[in-house]
Amino acid sequence: MRYIIIGYGNIGKKRKGVLGEKCVATVDPTSPEADYKDYRDAPLSDFDAAILATPDSVKFEILKYLLENGKHSLVEKPLFLEKSEMDTLRYLALKKKVIWYTSYNHRFETLILKLKQRLEEKSLGQIYFGNFVYGNGTVGNIVNHWRDRGNGVLEDLGCHLMDLATYLLPSFDFKYRKIRGHSFEARSCDYFSFVTMDGRFQFLCSSLIWKNTFRIEIYGSRGSLHLDGLCKWGESQLVQRERIFPSGVPKENTWMATGPDESWSRDIEYFEGRMVLKETSYENDLYLSDSIRSMILGLQ
To answer: Is residue 10 part of a domain?
Structure first.
């Protein structure tokens, strides 16, 4: 499989490092390191698939071009489009027998995979409620950058949390309502909190949390699971607490994971598997777009 990378910034360079020799060219209108300035200049005969690591505003245009020309496409999250645009992409994918797949690579973190396994084994019994938190201190890097637009951290970090909620707990029908959204330092939203309609699952994302923070807590009738950290930051920990009846200090089991971050290579493997099955990410993209859209009116 021969790839080109469109958008040769930080994420594009990470992708090239994972692909190695499978990456045959890079495209970026501003980077002097890129092979091409315009994606249309890359010869179609030179590649089979593309990775889009571009600003959101140009994703639909580029995706449409790639699908029309029979190229599989991996899109760096999010893909925030109208349903009519999604339908156009789906029509082209079916017509050309190719796929697009929007990547949420945190699904492939070592301990998130372990967390999912423990949930599938029903080790917590009946699921009661949970908390999801994702934050960093990057607001100073975003101000006056092209990223300081749109819906800010809701699209940047919040979409990861929503994707993980449905991935980890697929039997739940997650619908959301906004609690608070603020723009303290950035023009776009740099703090956003939201909750499921039934109030059982709470979410917070912010670029004003000065230490990198990622946390998932899920509570059930037989205990709880607590994930803290991501391998991209060095160390991740998962703790399972087994409930003592009628009460008492729970028994604990702990798993640790450290870098390197293998989620990127696992994500590519998953993408290539979806190529064989001809499975786009239409349903998940539409769900996340609708979920974000349902909460953004308060940010206008």
So the answer is: yes
Asked whether residue 275 is domain-assigned, the answer is yes
Q: Which domain holds residue 159?
A: 106-260
- Residue 107's SS3 state is helix
- Is 14 domain-assigned? yes
The domain tally of the chain equals 2
Note the pLDDT tens digit of each residue in 43-68.
999 999 999 999 999 999 999 999 99
Can you list the alpha helix ranges (DSSP code H) found in the chain? 10-19, 59-68, 83-96, 110-120, 139-142, 153, 159-168, 263-277, 282-295
Rg (CA), the chain: 20
**Backbone φ and ψ of 239, nearest 5°:** -120, 130
Predicted TM-score (pTM) of the model is 0.94
Instruction: Indicate if 83 and 222 belong to the same structural domain.
Output: no
pLDDT at 228 over 90: yes
